[in-house]
Amino acid sequence: MPQKHVKPTPPKIDTAKLSATLNNSLVIRLVIASVVFALSLIVDMPDFAGILLLVLASVLAGYDIIMKAVEAVEGGDFTATPVIVVVTAVLAFFIGFGIEGAALVLLYQIGMLLLKYVREHTRKAALDLVQDQDAGIVTHMREIISDEEKTTMSIQRVMSSSAGLILKLAMVLAVVYAIVMPIVTSMSFSVSIHRALIILLVATPASVAVSIPVAAAVGLCQSARHGIVFGSASSLEAMADVSAAVFDKNGIFAEECPRIIAMHSDVLDYDTFLNFVAHAVYYSEQPIANAISAVFDHDYKLDVIKDFREIPGYGVELSIDGIEVTFATRALLEGRGIEVNDPPTETGTAYYMVVAGRPMGKVVISSDVNQDLDSLVPELKSVGISRCVLLSDESKESSQQLAEMLNFSEMYAQCDTEKKLRIISDITQKTKGAVLFVYANGIEAHSDAAIDIRVNNRAKYADAITLPDAVGNLSAVKMISRRMREICVENALFVFIIKAILIFLSIIGYCNLWLAIFIDFAAAVASVLNTIRVTSESLRSSLRYKMGK
Questions:
Q1: What is the pTM of this model?
Q2: How is the chain split into domains, by residue range?
């Protein structure tokens, strides 16, 4: 029997090893190109031979820049940085500034190599922030900060767009300067073109936004260090604009799966009563259902359950095998005129089973409150989240008591999943800033809030995950988000100012090509190194805090 041909699996490429190999190759090329460049300057030779050595040094150091420039032109991107570098270097040779043209290519490659090195090491420093976290979180963060798309921020698109506009204006300025200056002054065309090339080179936008993905990586890792793990930088960035936070009670302020404290029936034995209760709450989303399902290990007979109706915060009613059944709290039963001959429980919440109008027994579940979060709302308000809303599936009385205990001024009781999503949608439409929704389970879609944070270790639809003991760090994460944005703006302004100074110096003749590219890259490297300050508190925020603002 002929064997089935199996297509061989391609070997897995070690990207880290490949990157290291390419870097080593580039370093060797740069060393050789630098030697050739030095020979052209030191050795006494005819001008033609010197120019050939400069061209050789440029090609050795930057043939890959030429390839990238060709790809950019073929793709219709005529203002890409490699295109401008190649055009500038070529024109520099033609107008008699060959030494500067060759130096430009060398310094550009050295600058890119240094910039890559600094970015990689800053990312490693960011990962060190989460080394004390779970191994799964460390792996998750490593994957995220290595993904260019997930470290993209909205502010990056704004800055790149602004820098692109400035580049176009600079191109117009450079052309006008190159043509007009020799006409209105005694300046030669070679000098005016030389200065115009410097203006064009300095105006390239690459160095403006280069630090933003690194700042995003630091911000994401700093947030994870506080126990809140975001899936992308854009979600963390949105935290800076949050002005309203909505919290689901279950799994955050109260147990998602409460314990059964007591179960008693004067009519039925334990197993039969538990079986009745388990079928009664099978379709319920209330915490009592989780408590019962945790202890019931028999098969369900779902065909006997009919006319199920959820009464959020109070219980359920249905028919089991044609018999009317109500499983609810004392408040609901007494409101319907059903007398409960049982003293109120001192601890926990009691649910009573009534079958065909006759009380059959009760189940008491724990109602522990996470009092470690009693300072959460004041802390959120201190960082600008002025509206904090509590969603509860319990009765109005119990929910109001919990809201007061946890300092919530706004509360919605008797909420099932549909009502929760509807409330969030309404709050989102009426809120000026972004809305944050924090929940544990029961939501199988992304809400209309800008950010969904799930208090769980799985986040199929959420933007971030956390655990109950880290929910109290939400105010710190909002400050991290603000700080991340502040650093990005600071870096961009710093680079823009450096570029403006260089353009001014080039116009008046105090700057050349190699100095311009050197200073521009130095500013870019400084902006990347500055991103680690995302982990420090903003001076402006400190002053506001001390002034009580």
A1: 0.83
A2: 19-225+479-546, 229-253+375-466, 260-365
